[in-house]
Amino acid sequence: MEKWANNKAWFLVLPVVIIVAFSAIIPLMTVINYSVQDIWGPGQSVFVGTEWFEEMLGDKRLHDALWRQFLFSGLVLLIEMPLGVLIALAMPKRGWGVSACLVTIAIPLLIPWNVIGTIWIIFTRPDIGLFGAGINNLLGIAFDHTARPLDAWITLMLMEIWHWTPLVILLAYAGLRAIPEAFYQAAKIDGASAWAKFQYIQLPKMRGVLTIALLLRFMDSFLIYAEPFVLTGGGPGNSTTFLSIYLVKIALGQFDLGPGAAFSLIYFVIVLLFSFMFYQALQRVGKGEKG
Amino acid sequence: MGLSLQNINKIVGRETHLNNISLEFEPGSRNVILGRTLAGKTSLLRIMAGLDRPTRGKVLIDGKDVTGVSVRKRSVAMVYQQFINYPSLTVYKNIASPLKITGVKKTEIERRVREIAEMLHIEDLLDRLPNELSGGQQQRTAIARSLVKDTDLLLLDEPLVNLDYKLREELRVELQGIFKQRKAIDIYTTTEPTEALMLGGNIVVIDEGRILQTGPTPEVYRHPATLKVAEVFSDPPINYISGEVHGSTARLGHDIEILLAGHMKSLPAGNYKFGVRSHHFFLSRTSKEDAKIQGRVELSEINGSETFIHVNYDNSRLVVQENGIQPLRIGAEITIYVNPSSFFVYDDAGTLVAAPSRDVIEKA
Amino acid sequence: MARIELSEIAHSYLPNPKEESDYALKQIHNTWEDGGAYALLGPSGCGKTTLLNVISGLLTPSNGRVLYDGKDVSRLPPEKRNIAQVFQFPVLYDTMTVFGNLAFPLQNRGLPSSKITQRVHEVAEILDLTPFLKKRAAGLAADAKQKVSLGRGLVRSDVAAILFDEPLTVIDPQLKWDLRRKIKEIHEQLKLTFIYVTHDQVEALTFADKVVIMYEGEIIQIGTPQELFENPEHTFVGYFIGSPGMNFLECTLDGNVARVDGAGITLDEKTAALGLKASGKLEVGIRPMYLKLRFEPVEGGVPAQVQAVEDQGSYKIVALTLAGKTLRARLPEGKPVPDGKVWLVFPPQWIRLFADGRLIK
């Protein structure tokens, strides 16, 4: 659809343009500026060209963080997506149960990120946490996210899944509700099994929302910072040092502004690349629905 | 106000929705746009309303270019296929909404709303919300809203298509009465030939984004300029029999010989398609000029007062619309009669070369 | 194949229905013969779709039983009843081909694949879908999609009845003719029980051997198109069938003359005698096509005023004023129409008398 009206409408957008300019474009320019200079102190800098970029691209720890990041996002999605769809399918379709379920499911989405971290730290603490202590004492399995990398990963993934599966559920549920009743009636009459119904009606009709959910969740998990920061600060060792944690370590921890800026830009390009994929996929889904 | 469209094109992606449309609408005229689904009727209305901008071409109101002017600055009202009302406002407030925006006095709003509501027989429903109404009542509300402000242009996009058959019949009659009282240009789109004929006025027949024919509605019905127009503008669909003209006679199908007289007298030799509307076929001879067609009954549909008989002749299908109940056995041999004076004759290119004269129809 | 009996069916969507108006279906008791072509006709909200869903098993009625060939199926789900349904909007499995769609009901029932292929090809041939078998169903035109929906019912050799819920809603007028004809041909060919729900009288009358008219949750008349047209048992049927509907004039009887505000319409003796015995509000009814218009006073002619003339192509509708009421007459194309005063002739054989809305007979 094409809409146009009065050119004066542009003035209404102007404040936003100015704010975006100050909050995004100018800082970005600064970062680009930093990324090509070596800075020792105020007013003391020298142009170094692509040196920081080369350094960062060759940085083994960055490579490790990147692969860790992909592994984390991949695992989280593999669990969150099917789990979300499954729960959405199991939800009631009408009656008071709908609102009850929706409210309960939405709770994790309403909690601030750092609070989520704190909740889970306490919950999984091996000494006093319900979960941590329970596993250690009742099941007799040693569990300590501060000391064992695997346990830290499990805790982080639990956190992420607990926090964000509701989003997938809500989207999938919305998609399911949009399917006209006649499709289910036809499937019933055709004698379709529950699996066939899922495969040929529900899944194809949910494809659009699921694509959106997948991409949103990918981007979000790829930018994860608060949870590992609150939990272990990237440890034990570097086991939960994801891209954003590593970036903050370089830029603020070591105050290496140049490499930090170069890293930021690389990170930015990666995110941009996936945003583009996100956009392309959305476009295709839109067309697919129409055809 | 006069509305004119000049060389309007609308291209979306790679698809051409409208192809070089030029039209003139006289002030106070009643107009029908007839075309099948996806012919471009809605696209055209949206451009007239100012909701969409044409890819190329101009929209002029009283000679002034308004192509880029927003819908809010035009004096236009539109009624859609779907029943579109403000769900949280009562019927009264829905109807009053266009007046409120323009700042009409409260007493005047009250008067106008009640007047229009009465015209559309919804005066008792003014305190209800749209979802407490039946489909017909919802659409009445939407129509009332579009009429309450005396706009210069009233656009109705298949407004009755989602209503029950019977309701459609009633509203159609009422709408005609309402249109007559107004000075606006009314433009009404439809897929149904009967509806177009009932509304009368002028017609624009479009297909695949092109204008096929324009003119006074009954005139176009009686002189469909091309095969396509005749197809779009006949219900049941018009019947065709191919034929060949030699001198003063023509042979239709494989065995129908007719003498060329009246409107077909001066047809040059060659191949033609002869079109007959279903109600011009009869099961008994009505005049001595009648051509006889011998076919086989494929199906007979009884519609209370009349029968539609589907006949196979030369492997093509003809539909006969005959008054009364005609019990016919499927597969039976049947003879149908048609007076050649009711033939529409189309040449190889599908252009009308001879149409039954009005006198002949009146005499029949 | 099956004969379907509805025994004392009533249904309410409310959990605790109290009054009669709480019921979407009030009291339905009738039989649908094996191999019949039925139409279920009525305005929106009359309960026709509810009744269809009761027959198909998508809905279990609050009261009453549904019998297929004498067997009680009231509690059986739709897939156990061997029925098929075509919906208002095409319902297809978008990701499958046309072949896949047609084969789906058979695959679900575990037929061997050679048998499935054979059946699908047979049905595709009947429906003229053979060239599309390998195409994706989502890309088809609306009429082809509806044919695929119908095909999914036809492939099952055990199917007892096919139910149609306003299947031509999304089809263009010209294509409606073809599709309707196809459905009729299939009925002639396969002799299955077809039940067709619609609000469109043309569709109902042309399709069905027997039309069932519903109004406010009740069946008010069942009859052939001709019976409904000529002898509507209720003023609602008279109004609902025919385009335009039947004309009704309130009257009093004076011997064999029906008095309408001073004007007299002569009835035949049998009708008059029946009318004299009836009580309640009397009305004369006549179909627009049977009203005759005369330019000059004639014996038995009732003077009336021409209001408006509508040209509908193959005929004209003349609106007339008689005793303050509007009547409509339907004239064939080409008949001259006078303006101003005319004399109406009511042929006695086409006049019907109604008492309190019911046909007197």
Summarize the structure.
The complex is a heterotrimer of chains A (291), B (364) and C (361). With 291 residues, chain A is mainly alpha-helical.
Low-confidence stretches of chain B: 360-364
The helicity of chain B comes to 25-40%
Radius of gyration of chain A: 24 Å
CATH class of chain A: Mainly Alpha
Q: Class of the largest domain in chain B in CATH?
A: Alpha Beta
Order of helices and strands of chain B: EEEHEEEHHHEHEHEEHHEEEEEEEEEEEH
Give the helix tally of chain B: 9
Give the SSE order of chain A as H and E letters.
HEEHHHHHHHHHHH
CATH architecture of chain A: Orthogonal Bundle
CATH topology of chain A: MetI-like fold
Biggest sheet character of chain B: 6 strands, mixed
Estimated share of beta-strand residues of chain B: 35-45%
Mean pLDDT across the residues of chain A is: 83
Strand order of the largest sheet of chain B: 6-7-8-3-9-10
Structural class of chain A: mainly alpha
Q: Please give the most extensive interface between any two protein chains, plus how many residues each contributes.
A: B-C, 46 and 44 residues
Q: Tell me the count of domains of chain B.
A: 2
Strands of chain B, count = 21
Number of domains of chain A: 1
What is CATH's topology name of the largest domain in chain B? Rossmann fold
In terms of topology, how is this protein built?
The complex is a heterotrimer of chains A (about 290), B (about 375) and C (about 350).
Chain A: H1 9-35, E1 37-41, E2 44-47, H2 51-57, H3 60-90, H4 96-110, H5 113-124, H6 130-139, H7 149-177, H8 181-189, H9 194-222, H10 226-231, H11 243-253, H12 257-290
Antiparallel strand pairs in A: 1-2
Helix pairs in contact in A: 1-12, 2-12, 3-7, 3-9, 4-7, 7-9, 9-12, 11-12
Chain B: E1 3-12, E2 15-25, E3 30-34, H1 41-49, E4 56-61, E5 64-65, E6 76-79, H2 91-102, H3 106-119, H4 135-148, E7 153-157, H5 165-181, E8 185-190, H6 193-199, E9 202-207, E10 210-216, H7 217-222, H8 227-232, E11 239-246, E12 249-252, E13 256-259, E14 270-276, E15 281-282, E16 291-303, E17 306-313, E18 316-323, E19 333-338, E20 344-346, E21 352-354, H9 358-363
Parallel strand pairs in B: 3-8, 3-9, 6-7, 7-8
Antiparallel strand pairs in B: 1-2, 1-4, 4-5, 9-10, 11-12, 11-14, 12-13, 14-20, 15-19, 16-17, 16-19, 17-18, 20-21
Chain C: E1 4-11, E2 25-32, E3 37-41, H1 48-56, E4 63-68, E5 71-72, E6 83-86, H2 98-108, H3 113-126, H4 142-154, E7 161-165, H5 173-190, E8 193-198, H6 201-207, E9 210-215, E10 218-223, H7 225-230, H8 235-240, E11 247-250, E12 252-254, E13 257-260, E14 263-266, H9 269-277, E15 282-286, E16 292-294, E17 302-311, E18 315-322, E19 325-332, E20 341-345, E21 352-355, E22 358-359
Parallel strand pairs in C: 3-8, 3-9, 6-7, 7-8
Antiparallel strand pairs in C: 1-2, 1-4, 4-5, 9-10, 11-15, 12-13, 13-14, 15-21, 16-20, 17-18, 17-20, 18-19, 21-22
Helix pairs in contact in C: 2-3, 2-4
